[in-house]
C-alpha cells in the first residue's frame, strides 16, 4: 500500500465526534494518507433524534462512507467505535484493506457493549472521571486542558447504540488483516483476557492475520499521545 493513497476512516468511541481525531489527521495527511474523521449519527450537540438512533444507523453511516471512497480503505475504531467497525467489515469484507482496533475489538455475534438501560432512559451522558476510571477506562496521559475539552465537547451516547447487539455473519471478515493498538492494557494482557466470554465478548483473537502494537497510555490515545498514535496508524496502513 506504500505507493497508493489510502483512505483512513476514523471512528470514535462513546461521547465523541470526528473532532476527537483533530490532532491525528494532520500527521496522517503528512504521511500521504487520506483521513476521514467520522461524526456518527446522533453525535452532535444539536442532534434532534439521539433517542431513536440505532446501531444499524451508525453502522450504515460508516459503511456508506467507505463504499463511496475510491481506493483502499483502512478502518480505525476506538473503544465502542471498534465494535461498530467490526460490524461494518462484516457487511462487505472485501472492501477493506485493514482494520485497526484502538483499545477495542470486534464483538461476537449477539453481544452488546452495555446492558439495557432503565425504563425512560434513552442515552448515556459522559460519566464523572472517577466513574470512568472505576469502569476501567484509564485517563492516563490526559492533562487538565484535555479533560476540559473532552467534557465540553462530549455528547450523550445514544442508548440504542450502546445496548444494541452486534450482528456478525460473514466469515469473510476473518480474511481482513487486523491491527490491535493496545493503550490502557498491554498486548500481553489483552491476549490473556480476550475471549468470547465476559468481560470483552470479543472475537479479536479469531483473526489469523493479527498484529499487536503497544502504545502505553490511557484509553484516549488520540488525546494523550496523538503523534505516536498517528505513527502507529501510518505503519498499519503500510503493513
UniProtKB/TrEMBL annotation:
Residue ranges of every copy of the AB hydrolase-1 domain listed in the record: 8-232
The organism's place on the tree of life at top rank: Bacteria
An example Gene Ontology molecular-function term: hydrolase activity
Keywords: Hydrolase
One Pfam family recorded for the sequence: Abhydrolase_6
Entry keyword Hydrolase: yes
Protein name listed in UniProt: Alpha/beta hydrolase
